[in-house]
Design a protein that fits this description.
The complex is a heterodimer of chains A (407) and B (557).
Chain A: E1 10-16, H1 19-28, E2 36-42, H2 44-53, E3 58-61, H3 70-80, E4 85-90, H4 95-101, E5 107-110, H5 117-131, H6 135-143, H7 151-162, H8 168-175, H9 179-189, H10 203-220, H11 229-254, H12 259-271, H13 274-282, H14 284-297, H15 301-309, H16 313-323, H17 328-335, H18 350-366, H19 374-380, H20 382-398, H21 400-403
Parallel strand pairs in A: 1-2, 1-3, 3-4, 4-5
Chain B: E1 6-9, H1 13-25, E2 30-33, H2 36-45, E3 50-54, H3 62-71, E4 80-84, H4 89-98, E5 102-105, H5 110-154, E6 158-162, E7 168-171, H6 173-179, H7 183-186, H8 191-195, H9 198-214, E8 223-229, E9 235-247, E10 250-259, H10 261-340, H11 346-359, H12 361-392, E11 401-403, H13 405-420, E12 424-429, E13 436-438, H14 440-462, E14 469-478, E15 481-488, H15 495-498, H16 518-529, E16 533-539, E17 543-551
Parallel strand pairs in B: 1-2, 1-3, 3-4, 4-5, 12-14
Antiparallel strand pairs in B: 6-7, 6-10, 8-9, 9-10, 11-13, 14-15, 15-17, 16-17
The chains are: A alpha/beta (407), B alpha/beta (557).
């Protein structure tokens, strides 16, 4: 995103039970000394002790360590210092290890880690933190392991995954209706445990690679997705958010002609409001204040957010997906889906489609019309196509609510 | 002997008493009754051994009583002796005609009565024994007949009797069932032309002509397995025993034929099961071996990954540090050269030159960066090998999982590099493939088998010539299947080897180089476990291409 080094140095803590690894990292990352303030802890206990003296921004830890292992350490860090970005660097790239790390780690890297990758991942985490300046909000996002799934959808998926006859495609079709699960699946499949040669963003591919057993274990493990209380408290809001996301994804994917771009736009649009979902569950006041402010002053909801909290759901969502290590184009589209001009997109692409899809979906479903950014509309020639799009997607969105799984 | 006693019938009580006394004295049991009617009733109640019957009685005459006895089947065998006061010859004739056995006239003598009684009792006894004997004989004969039929009809084996000319002279019901010919249809027919398949007839006839003359033959006294024909023309396996026998001074034969179709079928099934089990055991043992290797590989990978990490980190650091030092030393050198121009600094300059010469600075600055690059390359190769090894030994779950076939092939090429690197160059042509639902660990095994086979085929061809052949691996999408071609420019497969190629333990390699299980197991993995196919095309001296087709969506359950 923007350059670093101008601000204060980021603090990075490395944890391993082997001094050789720590020394090697110290040596190799010496060249980052101007940007990073690095410290090294020999084991989990040492790490917690150092953190109690001085917290850090990013922690990079081994998984298998005597005494306190990486998962236990990160669990402690998650509850004590939730705004620290938690990264695993493990030589034990087994799926079992991944399962242990999923709820507590934001990203997973494998030893040996190619030169550059570790630096990139840590740098990106630091940059992302600049997206959300409020440390309290960062802490809330950092603590999130998974977003609650609509109970009916969740129990449907649970039924499917225990039914031997259900196919990967069936499961993918259900998961594709939920932004939180999609994000989690993409986080896992793009982690080093699967060592894919390219980043995956299609849910169907991701589920293909993970296999149903792995999906079963991730989706049904622990309490990642099964918390029903938010739906009891704000079910209506969450349900309409879900409908909106799917409508946006459906529209956005059809605005583009290239198949790959269509798929990219679909997933980015599906996830574009994940920040809103997160805020609705964990900081409901944020939405309330922003909505009130928008109403009383006549500005958009997004502007209301910025005025009342200084941060919008776009940045919050992008921060979550960013520290989870999702493909960059998704993070970028989510971060800028209200201000597409912030990015120099050479032609109408994924970000543009998400932006237009979002506005169209709001207009067609909620009847609210937020004017298009005139500068952007002119740049990509939107005005001409607008009436045609409205006509085309009207019926498609109209029966979407009815088609969605509600039980 | 006279269990039923002697029934005495007379209307005169005196005579009754007198006769009873005589009989009692003789040790027999008298049963006196006073009328014919009572006599009949008493006889029916318990048949006597003999009856002494008065001729003249008031209500029913002795003759009438006698006739009644003779007409009743229960009583007709009892001997009746008349006792009469009359002496008319016609009366005696009448009595005998009525069925009496003897006749005594009153007044009677004790001795005469007793002699007649005992004679008739004895005659009756003899007759009874005779009848009994006859009856027993009849039963015996019936039994003998029944036994013979029973044996012949209840045996499941066909019994065929052949006369001296080889014609059928008997044919039991089992023969009817076995061959489908009714007894009447075959009697007198030539057995061999009827039942033997044409291709054996000449031999059978030759053997028979020897047998009919000598009673000898190779088939005699043994049980043979032969082929025979049913009436329907169907050929079936039989077991035949021939018992030679002489009838009317000629050699004849009894043939016992058993239909062994079922037995043969069961034997074949058993044989098949034994082979299958053997195959499964092999595969299991192989799988267990692989599993152990897989676990070891995962453990070793973890062990190697840790030092690889810090080896790489430190080399990277040293390289950067060295680059810095070289930069510094160049600046220092330039500074010293300038300083060296002043005479008083000459010693410092010379000392520096000496060290530069000693450590061979020119060589170091030229070669150390290359050495670092080599180290970095080496470490990344170690990482690649370890990763490939782990990927290769993919711990297969029972469930099929989606996998990247291209990546699996790359990993296998790394693993197998030692097999081919001296004899062949590898060219790959990978199409973009969708994830394939499969048991990747098993497929890796197949890839390895085929690559190693290809390497061996090329190696056999190039020998020690120093030339290199080629192994070409190509992937493509073909409908809803992924197609993998593994070609080599090796020796090719001979015609004789082709048909056995996928059989277990078939190998053309020398001992120690191949177990002969590779292709058999590969085929089982591809066809049975994945519902795919494995085929090959080969030209002697030119090379071989194995083609795998694997369904993208996995095997249909």
């Amino acid at each position: 995103m923007t350059d670093i080094g101008s601000g204060t140095k980021k603090r990075v803590l490395f944890v391993d039970d082997e001094q050789g690894i720590l020394d090697g990292l110290r040596n190799r990352l010496r060249r980052k000394r101007d940007q990073w303030d690095m410290s090294f802890a020999l084991g989990g206990k040492d790490a917690l002790e150092q953190l109690s003296q001085q917290p850090c921004d990013v922690i990079v830890t081994d998984m298998r360590m005597p005494g306190m292992d990486g998962a236990t350490l990160l669990m402690q860090v998650q509850s004590l210092y939730p705004d620290i970005v938690r990264i695993v660097l493990s030589g034990h790239a087994e799926f079992e290890a991944a399962l242990r790390a999923i709820p507590v780690a934001h990203q997973f890297l494998a030893k040996p880690c190619d030169p550059g990758i570790l630096e990139n991942v840590v740098d990106r985490a630091c940059q992302l933190q600049r997206l959300v300046n409020d440390a309290t909000v960062r802490a809330i996002v950092g603590k999130v392991s998974g977003l609650p799934v609509m109970p009916q959808l969740y129990s449907k998926l649970r039924r499917m995954l225990t039914d031997e006859k259900c196919s990967m495609q069936d499961v993918a079709n259900v998961i594709k209706q939920d932004a939180g699960m999609c994000a989690k699946i993409l986080q896992l499949v793009n982690s080093a445990f699967f060592r894919l040669s390219r980043q995956l963003s299609r849910i169907d591919d991701a589920i293909g690679y993970l296999g149903l057993e792995a999906v079963h274990r991730v989706v049904l493990a622990g309490e990642l997705f099964s918390d029903e209380s938010p739906y009891k408290a704000a079910g209506g809001l969450l349900t309409s958010l879900r409908t909106h996301s799917i409508a946006t994804a459906t529209i956005a994917s059809q605005l583009l002609s290239n198949k790959k771009q269509q798929e990219d736009a679909f997933i980015a649009a599906l996830l574009h409001d994940i920040g809103k979902l997160l805020l609705a569950v964990y900081i409901p006041d944020h939405l309330k204040l922003a909505t009130e402010h928008a109403k009383s002053t006549g500005v958009s909801f997004h502007a209301g957010e910025l005025a009342t909290a200084g941060v919008s759901h776009a940045e919050v969502g992008a921060y979550l997906l960013g520290i989870w290590g999702l493909p960059y184009f998704i993070v970028e589209a989510v971060a800028n889906h209200h201000e597409p001009t912030r990015v120099e997109e050479p032609e109408f692409g994924v970000l543009g489609a998400v932006y237009v899809g979002d506005v169209l979906a709001h207009e067609l479903i909620d009847g609210t019309s937020e004017p298009l950014d005139p500068a952007y509309a002119e740049r990509v020639g939107l005005a001409l196509r607008w009436p045609e799009w409205k006509k085309r997607f009207g019926p498609l969105v109209a029966d979407l609510g009815a088609r969605l799984v509600s039980g | 002997m006279s269990a039923g006693g002697i029934l005495i019938v007379d209307d005169s009580v005196e005579i009754l008493r007198a006769l009873a006394t005589i009989i009692k004295r003789a040790g027999l049991v008298p049963r006196p009754v006073t009328s014919g009617k009572l006599a009949i009733e008493a006889a029916i109640a318990e048949p006597p051994s003999l009856v002494l019957l008065d001729m003249q009685m008031p209500d029913m005459s002795g003759l009438s009583v006698c006739r009644c006895f003779k007409q009743d089947t229960r009583l007709q065998s009892i001997p009746i002796i008349f006792v009469s006061g009359q002496h008319r010859p016609d009366e005696k004739v009448e009595a005998f005609l009525a069925g009496a056995v003897d006749y005594v006239t009153k007044p009677f003598h004790e001795e005469e009565v007793l002699a007649r009684i005992s004679t008739h009792l004895r005659i009756q006894e003899l007759q009874r024994q005779l009848e009994l004997q006859n009856e027993r004989l009849a039963v015996d004969r019936r039994w003998a007949n029944e036994r013979a039929t029973l044996v012949s009809s209840s045996t499941r084996d066909a019994l065929i009797i052949l006369d001296n000319s080889g014609n059928i002279s008997d044919w039991n019901s089992a023969a009817e069932d076995t061959f489908g010919w009714a007894r009447a249809e075959v009697l007198g027919k030539q057995l061999h032309s009827l039942l033997a398949p044409e291709r054996f007839q000449a031999a059978h006839l030759a053997a028979w002509s020897r047998f009919r003359a000598t009673g000898q033959g190779e088939a005699i006294g043994k049980t043979l397995e032969l082929a025979a024909l049913r009436k329907s023309g169907e050929e079936f396996p039989i077991e035949l025993s021939i018992i030679p026998t002489i009838l009317n001074d000629c050699w004849c034969a009894v043939g016992v034929v058993r239909d062994i179709t079922e037995r043969k079928r069961a034997e074949a099934k058993l044989q098949h099961e034994v082979t299958e089990r053997h195959k499964m055991e092999l595969e299991l043992r192989h799988a267990q071996k692989l599993e152990v290797v897989g676990q070891l590989a995962a453990g070793i990978a973890h062990e190697i990954n840790t030092p690889t990490q810090f080896l790489g980190d430190n080399i990277q650091f040293l390289k950067e540090a060295f680059d810095g030092l070289v930069r510094l030393s160049k600046e220092c050198h330039a500074a010293v050269v300038q300083l060296g121009q002043a005479a008083e600094n000459q010693p410092i300059f010379d000392g520096l030159r000496m060290i530069e010469h000693e450590i061979d600075l020119g060589y170091i600055t030229e070669n150390a960066p290359i050495a670092f690059e080599r180290c970095i390359d080496g470490v990344s190769r170690i990482a690649l090998i370890v990763r490939s090894m782990k990927e290769f030994a993919h711990n297969d779950q029972r469930e099929q999982g989606a996998a990247d076939i291209n990546r699996a092939l790359k990993a296998t090429l790394v693993i197998a590099r030692n097999e081919y690197k001296y004899v062949a160059d590898v060219a790959t042509e990978f199409a973009e493939l969708p994830p394939v639902v499969c048991h990747l660990g098993d497929l890796n095994q197949v890839f390895l088998n085929l690559i190693v086979n290809a390497a061996h085929a090329v190696g056999d061809k190039v020998g020690r010539s120093g030339d290199k052949g080629e192994i070409r691996i190509k992937t493509a999408i073909s409908g809803d299947q992924v197609r993998i071609d593994i070609s080599d420019s090796g020796t090719g497969i001979s015609d004789s080897a082709r048909q056995h190629l996928f059989e277990p333990f078939f190998t053309t390699k020398e001992i120690g180089r191949g177990t002969g299980q590779g292709l058999a197991i590969s085929r089982a993995i591809v066809c049975e476990r994945h519902g795919g196919s494995i085929t090959f095309e080969s030209q002697l001296g030119i090379g071989t291409t194995f083609t795998l087709l694997i369904p993208v969506q996995g095997k249909n359950p």
